[in-house]
Amino acid sequence: MGLTRRRFLQWAGATGIGAVVFNGCRVPDHEIQVQSPVQIPEDLVTGRDNYYATVIQGPSSSEGLLVRVMEGRAKKVEGNPDYPMNTGKHGLRAEALLQAAYHPDRIKTPLRRVAKGGPYRPIGWPEAIGELTRVLNEADPSRVVLATAPIRGVLADVTHRFADSYGARLIGFDPLDQTVLRAAMKRVFGQDALPDFDIARTGYLLSFGSDFLGTWLDPTHFARGYGEFRQGDGERGYLVQVDSRFSPTAAAADQWVYVTPGSEGLLAMAMIHTIVSDGLGDGAAASALTGGRGASALSAFTPSAVAERVFGETGGGAERIRKMARDFASKEHGQALAIGGGSAGAYANGLFNLTAIYALNHLVGAVDPPNGGGLVFNPPSDEPRITAAPLREWKQLIGDMRAGNVDVLLVRDANIDYGLPGSLGTREALGKVGTIVSFSSFLDETTVLADLILPGSTPLEEWGTDIPDPGPGYRTVAFQQPVINPFHGTLSFGDVLLQTGRELGFGDQLPWATMRDAVRDTARALHETGGGSVTQPTFPEFWKRALERGGWWDMNATAGAASAPPRLPTATVLPKLAGDENQYPFFLVPYEAHGIGAGGFAHLPWVQSAPDPITTVAWATWVDVNPTTARELNLHQDDIVIVGAPNGRFLEAAVYVNPATPPHVVSIPFGGGHEHFTGVAAKRGANVLDILEDSEDTETGALAWAGTRVRLTKTRNRVKLPKLEGNELAVQLPGEEVIEVQHVSR
Amino acid sequence: MATKTKSSAQRDTPKWEMVIDLDRCTGCQACVIACQAENNIPINEESAFHEHRAIQWIRIERYWEGEFPDVKARFLPLLCQQCDNAPCEPVCPVYATYHNEEGLNVQVYNRCVGTRYCGNNCPYHARLFNYWEPVWPEDLRNQLNPDVTVRTRGVMEKCTFCIQRIRRATRGGEAVEDGALQPACVQSCPTSALVFGNANDPDAKVTRLKNDERHFRVMEHLGTDPSVTYLKQVDVDG
Q: More exposed terminus of chain B, fewer Cβ within 10 Å: N or C?
């Protein structure tokens, strides 16, 4: 059959139409592929992920992290299993750091005010560094102050060198600083570094005011030990929490002992009296503590003399103190350990309290015991660190500002306008400072007053090191590396100092081009020791391996022995609470909020939305009031009350009727009440720091943040507290318990 | 009555279970936020708490006992119990929830039509409904986990035991070493109160702990046969 033109056209037409027709009738490929919907999420993923080790340092915490990074974006924070402080675990604040990097309200570029008090104008980094250099060149260095949040590691070294070379005054700021605790460690044990507590191997843990499972120092680290303390390989440990507030640690304790605020040291002294007079503890330590006089040197602290003041309305009497002392000194349980901090050190007698509490350890062999379970001292670090200055120094500085003696204030994450007691008039004083330069990543209350903003990077974008304080008991250096590139046009504080230092002409004191170079120099010095957790023949190999592991630590580099026990005071030091008892009938026991801390984490949505463990409240500030007290004052859940302090300052917040709050105590979490600091934090809750008296620990000058009395005044307003709990308190119904409990006898 | 014995094939298939030791738990919320981050759970704004519609695949319930000075607060981390006899499964009209061979109570998002029958039937309130389209500020979307679907408005969701991690660890068919596979909550828990593993492995930690003398299951009398076992908190008397 020949192929005619006509037949060709017929075939071609049929084929073309067929192709169209049959293609149109066919089910598309993607519709006939059998795909389990459950499989879809991971099947959709393209790209490659990597995990990078880094570290995040808080004022007293250090968490080694592995961050999952995909396509240049950080996706998930996980604990670094290698890092000695948190060994694979992490807390909610570390998790929420991702939101700091990708926060919509970050400062994205350097800003300069057009005129004093005028709007900001975005500028480039060369102009920003140039402007900072000009300001510092024109200023008298003795009238320049560099204020920063506490820093450890390489950045502390760089900051010190910068301030020293230029001649500026360097000062650290943390609203709830550890000045008193540091002084107690020096006095009782002769140690400069904060100690570790071997909670995992402790048999009997007596904690005074320190919410070590909630917010005190490094809770993730302590929680690692607590899990083993409870249900590890050894016998279950026994925890007694002495506190004037029902904290998460009190909730976890076998026994919560309420004491009148500020009387923690008195209780510890009475326990020492009992141990010494009964001859229960270490005889040599008892002799040293009492100057060889025995119990007679402690006659002011007999249990019968102090019991009423210690226990107040709850009673209990002297016999309860004696029993606590005998239990603590008993040899039947494992190693005993006494720790203290938090509110116990936040009165005018804070150092007296902590001295007495930690002295208990000398009597029961808890000072670096050979079998563990006690205090573990950390070796002193050669590298400088910047710790928070006590309130006394800040008062002096605020006075200098007010007097017009500060021309330039450089401020890095030291939100003093928010974090110092309102009665100091910090904002007014800042108004007298010639030029304020901020290095914050966010517009917090102090940064909005700045004339020039050089926005810093977030921790996941920076180079640095951390030398944890408290550490794990041996020399530890963690490496912080940028796991992602800066998401915006920001530059790390350290790099700004290095660049500005060169511009100012003291580059020889800052011999690094970048922070990465400074970190490499630290690593090089560690490599040259030839020991520790990372040993490699060449430095490049060491550098790579150390970054992979997240740090370097040497378990053989431990601390020296503790000093001899100190001579204990023979007379009581009173907490000196501000305010008349009749006019201001309530003890105000504020506390660091579980998530947002003292306000420094209030800009992170995950942290704000994490319910408080005790009340389940999120996103708000509340006032804990005892149920009986509430009835007497005709207060109900969600009623707004005015909390007034003797200095005339007050705040308003909703009532949470808390069955665990003592009748004469009201508690309010720190951290709320920001005016600025991103849309997440602003105009939310109340700032209890604002109403505190500016009273100090009499010896160290630290803020006595628990030393204020208040009164409550009911208003006609109500606001529903946002909380996970329902409208009624969730209680265990007798006989219908949701949570089952195993009762055992001691 | 015939005795049930597991075939070797059944034994080879993992049975994922969790044990939560209440004597270790401090209610610290680390697990809650780790879960939020891993599973692309929308940010619970203040309004979500007011309306009691906060989405938390694992939440910490706090129960009071007594009043000052004799008071206790007890914590209960509560998540989907992955019940073997799940009340949520038979009521779904579109089979969006079913039980898989590994003991997981699985939720198929793109089958769900949002009747919320399953949520009504869950005695643990572990199932959560998306009343609104989840919204993140644009920059924060960079954090979203690419392994996990963002659920839309009108869809029920709940804890999956981090099925994306299970899939990744078991892809290829190799046996997973005990403890190597952890859901985000277990991985973060600072006190190691949460333990996860294959209950068909007689040597697994989860198998040992679920038979501890302190074991109990929440509302066991309902006969839901949960895959989450709790260990009782210990109270020392005297």
A: N
**Residue A569 belongs to a domain:** no
Query: Between residues 151 and 210 of chain B, which touch chain A (CB distance below 8 Å)?
Result: 163-164, 167-168, 184, 187-193
Last residue of a domain, one of A376, A405, A427: A376
The phi-psi region of residue B133 (left if phi > 0; otherwise alpha if psi is between -120 and 50; otherwise beta) is beta
Number of domains in chain A: 2
- Distance, in Å, from the CA atom of A562 to the CA atom of A377, rounded to the nearest integer, reads 8
Which tokens hold the place of A378?
């950390």
Q: Is residue A143 part of a domain?
A: no
Q: Count A/B contacts: CB-CB distance under 8 Å.
A: 267
Domain limits for position A594 = 586-718
Distance from chain centroid for Cα A188: 24
A578-605 pLDDT, tens digit each? 899 999 999 999 999 999 999 999 999 9
Four-point Cα dihedral A277, A283, A287, A289, nearest 10: -80
Q: From residue A342, how far is each of A262, A521, A700, B4 by CA, in Å?
A: 11, 37, 15, 57
CB contact under 8 A, A607 and B33: yes
For tokens 């020949």, the residue is A2
Q: Does B2 score more than 50 pLDDT?
A: no
Q: Which of residues 116-135 of B touch A (CB under 8 A)?
A: none
The answer to whether residue A254 is domain-embedded is yes
- CB proximity B113 to A under 8 Å: no
Whether A726 and B217 have beta carbons less than 8 Å apart is answered as no
Q: How far is B64 from chain A (nearest CA, A)?
A: 4
Which domains does chain B possess?
8-231 (3.30.70.20)
| Distance (Å, whole) CA A77 – CA A65 | 6
> pLDDT tens digits, residue range A28-72?
555 555 555 555 544 556 788 999 999 999 999 999 999 999 999
Interface TM-score (ipTM) > 0.85:
yes
As a whole number of angstroms, the distance between CA B126 and CA B130 comes to 13
Alpha carbons A663 and A677: distance in angstroms, whole number: 35
- Which of A76, A102, A607 is the closest to B139 by Cβ? A102
CA distance to A740, B90, B223, per residue, from B122 (Å): 20, 11, 12
Nearest to A250 by CA among B3, B75, B53, B111: B75
Residues of chain B with Cβ-Cβ distance to A731 below 8 Å are 63-65
**CA A477 to each of CA A47, A92, A393, A550: distance values in angstroms, whole numbers, following the listed order:** 33, 23, 30, 9
Specify if A695 maps to a domain: yes
Q: Which residues contact A370 (CB under 8 A, 6 or more apart)?
A: none
Q: Do B143 and A73 touch (CB under 8 A)?
A: yes
Over residues A514-542, the pLDDT tens digits come to: 999 999 999 999 999 999 999 999 999 99
- Mean pLDDT, chain A cut into blocks of 10 residues (746 residues total): 64 54 52 52 69 96 97 96 97 96 98 91 98 98 98 98 98 97 97 96 98 98 98 96 98 97 98 98 97 96 96 88 98 95 98 98 97 95 92 98 98 98 97 97 98 97 97 97 97 98 95 98 97 97 98 95 94 92 97 96 98 98 98 98 98 98 97 98 98 97 97 97 93 90 92
What does DSSP say about strands B70-79 and A622-625: parallel, antiparallel, or unpaired? Answer: unpaired
- CB-nearest to B63 from A103, A213, A732 is A732
Q: Smallest Cα–Cα separation from A346: which of A144, A582, A174, A507?
A: A174
Q: CATH number of the domain that A590 lies in?
A: 2.40.40.20
Q: B104 and B114 in contact (C-beta within 8 Å)?
A: no
Per-residue tokens: A529: 């020791």
Q: How far is residue A131's CA from residue A414's CA, in Å, rounded to a whole number?
A: 21
